[in-house]
Specification:
By secondary structure, the protein is mainly alpha-helical. The chain has two domains: 3-78; 97-334, MetI-like (MetI-like fold). It has helices at residues 3-33, 41-78, 95-101, 104-134, 141-149, 156-166, 179-186, 201-227, 231-239, 244-255, 257-272, 276-281, 291-301, 305-334; strands at residues 81-84, 88-91. The protein has a two-stranded antiparallel ribbon with strand order 1-2. A hairpin with a 3-residue loop joins strand 1 (81-84) and strand 2. Helix 4 packs parallel to helix 8, helix 6 packs across helix 8 and helix 11 (257-272) runs antiparallel to helix 14. It is globular and about 90 Å long.
Length: 335
């Protein structure tokens, strides 16, 4: 069967299955279990209405359990095991965690992840807010926003390839194809630099890629928030003699602070899981290791499922509090 027809058939079966499930679930509640007739009609209707949402949510709960909860439990279990000869596993308790925390590469990955967390969300949110404010009242603002948002359409690996060419270094007597080295030599640099091999600074050059991608996301969300600010508050501030900086920092930002927090936490979660950029540009060399790349190395290169799973659990533990906080703030906004 042609792949396109196979995909279409899968969609039809999936949609038909969902419609059929909801139809028969309603039929089961109203015609078999809780008939809306007789002396207990009112009680049966109430019971059916109590059960109906859970019955409709059951497919989603099963899917979440199968594709989210089960992998977490399985990964947690693997983190306490050690692979033995013969493709068997033995229980080692917290030994994988203690070995992992004793490895210099893991400590390096933790330090770099903290550095990414400090810089990337703040920079992407700040640049996004600046772009949203500067393009808000311009006649060609939508064109500018489209250009800033465009990197969001590029995959992380694609963006990594683009910036790897930006940072490319050729011998001094050869024309530079890397924009950064070309500018460096034009402005008096002595010789081309291997930017991705300079410790500490290479981490910043990698962060630029994620900031470049996430700024567009931050700009779109914050631009919508700025448009939602009541004009009366801005006009009152102008009448009171406030200058543009005072209006921006003391009138607008306080009113969209909850949106700024949501954008910041969303970018923070993406930053914690960063993998593609580091993998494609340095592969964790030259002191650029991060937790997700460390996990990949242990799982698929060293074939050490125990330590790889332990690294995955560390990433999940770091992401979970931010996720919970984000959901809490979102629910508070909906009240």
């Amino acid at each position: 069967m042609h792949p396109a027809l196979q995909g279409l058939l899968t969609i039809i079966i999936g949609v038909g299955g969902c419609v059929g499930y909801f139809y028969f679930a309603n039929l089961l509640l109203d015609k078999v279990l809780f008939k809306p007739e007789g002396p207990n009609a009112g009680r049966n209707i109430n019971r059916a209405n109590m059960i109906r949402p859970w019955l409709f949510l059951l497919p989603a709960i099963i899917a979440l359990g199968l594709y989210l909860a089960y992998p977490v439990v399985a990964t947690l279990r693997l983190s306490f095991l050690e692979r033995l000869p013969g493709n068997e596993f033995g229980f080692v308790g917290f030994e994988n965690y203690s070995k992992m925390f004793g490895e210099p590469k893991f400590i390096e990955a933790m330090k770099n992840n903290v550095l990414w967390l400090v810089i990337v969300p703040a920079a992407a949110t700040g640049f996004g807010l600046l772009a949203a404010q500067l393009t808000d009242r311009l006649s060609w603002g939508n064109i500018a926003k489209s250009i800033v948002f465009m990197p969001m359409a590029i995959s992380f690996v694609g963006a990594a390839v683009i910036f790897k060419l930006v940072y490319e270094a050729r011998p001094e007597d050869v024309a530079q194809i890397g924009i950064l080295n070309h500018l460096y030599l034009v402005f008096g640099g002595a010789e081309p630099q291997q930017w991705l091999q300079i410790p500490f600074w290479n981490n910043l050059f990698l962060m630029v890629v994620l900031i470049w991608i996430q700024t567009g996301f931050a700009m779109v969300i914050l631009s919508a928030a700025l448009r939602g600010i009541p004009e009366e508050t801005v006009e009152a501030a102008i009448i009171d003699g406030a200058n543009p900086f005072q209006i921006f920092f003391k009138i607008k930002i306080p009113q969209i602070m909850s949106t700024i927090v949501v954008v910041w936490t969303t970018i923070t979660i993406a930053t914690l899981k960063v993998f593609d950029i580091v993998f494609a540009m340095t592969n964790g060399q030259w002191e650029t290791q991060v937790l997700a790349n460390y996990m990949y190395d242990k799982l698929f290169r060293a074939n050490d499922w125990g330590m790889g799973s332990a690294a995955a659990m560390i990433i999940m533990l770091m992401v979970t509090p931010i996720l919970v906080w984000n959901v809490y703030n979102a629910r508070k906004e909906m009240r």
